[in-house]
Amino acid sequence: MDFMKKTKRIVKKLLQYLVKYKIVIIGTLIGSLAGFPGLFIGLLAGLYTERIMKRLRTEILCSRIIEQGASVPEWIGEPFPGALYTCAIVVYCAGDVRSAESRMRTVFTYKKPAEFGVYCRAAAASELNIDLISECLAHVVLQHRNDTVVPLQKIFMVLEAAEFGWDEKSRNTKPSRYLSELIGYKTSDSKMRDAYLVLGLSPSASLEKVKTAHRRLVTRYHPDHGEKIKGGTASFLQIQAAYELILHRLS
Questions:
Q1: How confident is the model at residue 7, as a pLDDT?
Q2: If 39 and its partner were Cys, which of 32, 170, 221, 230 is the partner (CB 3.0–4.6 Å)?
C-alpha cells in the first residue's frame, strides 16, 4: 500500500515537472535530432523561450491585478511589497514605459531589477484607475507599517520625480499627495532632487553628465517622435523643465 502511494506521488511529481518544463523538453527533443550540438542548442532555446513565456504570463497576471486592485501573490516575487502598484503610478505619471522603468531602476538599486520592466509593461497594458491604484498601494504600506521592508521614502522619491511638472489644474491631485493623505505621511518637496531623477541621474552628477543625459533623452522623446513613443511629448516637457531647473541652479 505504501509502495503504491509513493509511486503515485512520484508519477504526480513527474507529470507536474513535464507540464512545467514542457517547452524546454520539446526544444531539447527537437534539437537532439541534429545530434549533440543540436541537443545543446535546443536546450538553450527551450530555456530562453520558457523564460520569455514566464514573463509574459506574469505580465498578463499583473495587468489583471492592477485593473482589479487585487492583492499581489507572493510567488510573483516583488522586490518590495507594493512594487507593482508603485510601477503602475510611475507609468501613469511618466506616460512612458521605458522612462518609468529607468526611474524605478535609478531609485531602487536591487540586484535583480528585471521585475520593474515586467511591472511597467503590465501597467502600460492596463486600464489605469489612479485613485484605485493609490489606495491599493496605501493598503500595502499600512499592512507593513511596522516593518522595514517597504522603502517608503524611496517610493515617494520616485513618485515625486515622475510627477515633475504636474499641473494639478488639468490633472487633479498628485498621486503622491493622495497617497500621503491616505497613510498620514509627510512628503518632502525637493524639486532639485526630482529634476535629477527625471534625467536618470543622482543629485551628485556633474554638469557634463547632466548635459549628456539631456541630449540623449531629448533625442529620444522629441515631439517629432510622438507617434512612435507613447507619452513622448509629456516626457519631453518634463525633461526640458528638469534640465532648465538644474542649469538655473548650477549657473
A1: 67
A2: 32
Provide φ and ψ at 75, rounded to 5°. -65, -20
The Cα 97–Cα 116 span in angstroms is 10
Amino acid (one-letter) located at 96: D
d(CA 101, CA 117): 6
Upper half-sphere CA count for residue 251 (Cβ side, 13 Å): 7
Regarding pTM above 0.90, the answer is: no
Count of CB atoms situated within 10 Å of the CB of 60 = 12
Confirm if 138 and 182 have CB atoms less than 8 A apart: yes
Residue 147: per-residue pLDDT: 72
Provide mean pLDDT across the span 186-195: 72
The Cα 79–Cα 111 span in angstroms is 9
CA distance 242 to 199: 7
CB count in 10 Å sphere of residue 233? 16
How would DSSP label each residue in 25-90?
Answer: HHHHHHHHTT-HHHHHHHHHHHHHHHHHHHHHHHHHHHHHHHHHTPPPPGGG--SSTTHHHHHHHH
Note the pLDDT tens digit of each residue in 135-165. Answer: 999 999 999 877 778 888 889 989 988 888 7
Rounded CA separation 146/140 (Å): 12
Identify the CA nearest to 113 among candidates 102, 121, 122.
102
Please give the residue that has the higher pLDDT: either 21 or 215. 215
Place of cell 486600464: 127
Radius of gyration over every alpha carbon of the chain, rounded to an integer in angstroms: 23
